[in-house]
Write the structure tokens for this entry.
Amino acid sequence: MGSKDSSFPQLGSRVGVDWPPMAQQQQKIQVDGEDVIVIRSAKRRRTVTADLSGGELRLRVPMRLSRRDIETHARAFRRRLATRASRAGRSDDALLVRARELAAQYLGDSAEPLKVSWSDRQLQRWGSTTSTTGEIRLSSRLRAMPGWVVDSVLIHELAHLIESGHGPRFQELVARYPRTHEADAFLAGVTWAAQHSKHSEYSSGAGEDP
Ligand SMILES: [Zn+2]
């Protein structure tokens, strides 16, 4: 590339000489079946940035980035944006809506949550349930975790609306959610890490309850 930094920032002075006259090119491609707007810029050397424009992912990339690299970036940004969005969407109300969906899908009509809320006090447990009031509290520590982990804790607590103990009937209920074991392992790892980190602020319970 023949670009040299000019001390006089004239028009086009920072554009590589082999890319005249367009400093930007825009195209729409598909990644995993979803539209991605790619804006190639001659000014960019390495950095890739992304934002959502009307629900579509928009990537700003260096002019000559390969299609394959673009796809890699698109997937990574989509994951990051989805995580951020779902975190923002995890209000108490959203949690109740999700709990009702899960109850309907996996537990039939028998589990009926009336209130679901995030709690900063659940340091020893991932969640707790008061079956008499239909109230479920989830530890705020779950908020930053993947949705399927939160779902699995919700299923656990919802199952307690039907069955108070952790016996065979309870196990049958929670096993209806396909990622129960995976989520248990995930949470066990989180607990282990918390217990083994030097500056652990909390020690999780001995695993009685997610
Ligand atoms: Zn339990």
Observations:
- The chain has a mean pLDDT of 82.
- The longest strand covers residues 24-31.
- The longest helix spans residues 67-88.
